Amino acid sequence: MKENKRYPWLVLSVTSLGVLLSMLNLSTLNVALPEVSNHFHAGAVASNWILLSYMLFNTVLILVFGKLADIYGRRKLYLFGLSEFTIVSLLIGFSPNIWVLILLRILQAVGGALVITNTTPLITDAFDKRRLGTALSVNVLIASIAQLAGPVLGGGLGFALGWRWVFWFNVPLGVIGVIWGYFVLRPVPGKARGEGIDWLGNITVFLGLGGLIFALSEGGIVGWSSPSVMIGLVAFVIFILAFVWVEKGARFPMIDFSLFSERAYTMANVATFINSLARSSIVLLIALFFQVVDHENAFVAGLKVLPVTIGMIIASPIVGALTVKYSPRLLSTSGLLGTCIGMCLLVWNIGPDASLFWISLGQLLIGLGTGIFQTPNTQSIMLSVPTERRGVANGLRSMLQSMGQVISTALSLMIVTSALPPRLKDTIYAGTSAQINTHDIVLISNGYRLAFIVMMVLTILAILASYFRSTGKQTNQLS
């Protein structure tokens, strides 16, 4: 009995290592991107795809692996994913050119997707309903700590030891995580055996999303009338329509549309996507801004984006306790309101004479709001589906969150660069080596301000989705 009481917390320790590794991998590169780009003399397009290649493949594979986990069991897929992620992280440091690095980033995304897909279901299966909110808040707290350490770690490693260590630091963490998970996690057979994978649906959604990301990444650099951009947009429309058509006749569809009959589940997922779309690129944009405009090195820029994750760390343990007393609708909507206020401060203060205090306060509010939003929103999603569908439900939630991240990154960088003259487009990724004058700083600042305005509007849409997530008892609780 005592072992049974300990087991959920041991599982949480395993998944925490996986979350820590995955989130560090994302947040370190947000700040260290100029170091990598400068080493390979990469232009704007290639620099974009250092980030986007991982995000795109991670996004689509998350949903595939969610179904595989339901069929074959979470333990073996989690351990395989963490092992593969660790090995590829080592290989990336030996990349001879930018295109090999991008290819290895795609392979790294395979392992990352396997890890992220299985963390929340492993936690949900291990904990009872009474303690699940606390466990999920710890999960968010670990992710927040990784995001806190990531920018400083990535900036410091890139500045002091070179770009390779931005990837090599993953290796010891990955080895520890694999060994610990092997001894802790119990083999549990899959609960959806007999079901298949909707490969055609996955291929069409990948091609559709890939077309959109390609068009966004190219549009701000080569112009929206470019044939390559038009091809990307046409591919997006065609393959998304094909995806809808395929799903209607699929025996085992990649998205279980029957789950969307529950309004709370539907609106929680909509809020997940829009919130991710609105806030995911904030740290990247601010880190690039300080490196280009203020000529800060990567380490100092990493310090200046800490308020976002400090806010998440403050909020995560508090909201874990609040989930017992207050409805997901109240907590999630309140968190998004805080994020919106933070966005307003960024819009107001970004510019050549940007106030570090107000920009830091804006980031802090975004972090607080995100920390308050995520735990109750995730709990609402996971508890509204049957046990045997949790892998699929979490896969969809993770996919929507990752889809928001990749589109947010492509969209925000496109907005910043689209209004710049050709000579300035590559400077966004040049870091301290950028050669710009006062007039250039004004142009660049205007691009950042426009990006933050778009993110603020998206946050307002997320507030509406969260508020209208449910009726009946939860509505009364909010009122």
From TrEMBL:
GO MF terms held by the record: transmembrane transporter activity
Keyword set, alphabetical order: Cell membrane, Membrane, Transmembrane, Transmembrane helix, Transport
Keyword Transmembrane helix: yes
Gene3D superfamilies: MFS general substrate transporter like domains, Multidrug resistance protein D
Protein topology in the membrane: Multi-pass membrane protein
One GO cellular component, as annotated: plasma membrane
Subcellular location: Cell membrane
CDD domains membership: MFS_MMR_MDR_like (cd17321)
Every Major facilitator superfamily (MFS) profile domain range: 11-474
Pfam families: MFS_1 (PF07690)
Residue ranges crossing the lipid bilayer per the database entry: 7-26, 46-65, 77-96, 102-124, 136-159, 165-185, 197-216, 228-246, 267-293, 305-324, 331-350, 356-373, 448-468
InterPro entries: EmrB-like (IPR004638), MFS (IPR011701), MFS_dom (IPR020846), MFS_trans_sf (IPR036259)
PANTHER family the record matches: BLR6921 PROTEIN (PTHR42718:SF46), MAJOR FACILITATOR SUPERFAMILY MULTIDRUG TRANSPORTER MFSC (PTHR42718)
UniProt xrefs under NCBIfam families: efflux_EmrB
Protein name: MFS transporter
Organism this protein belongs to: Pullulanibacillus camelliae
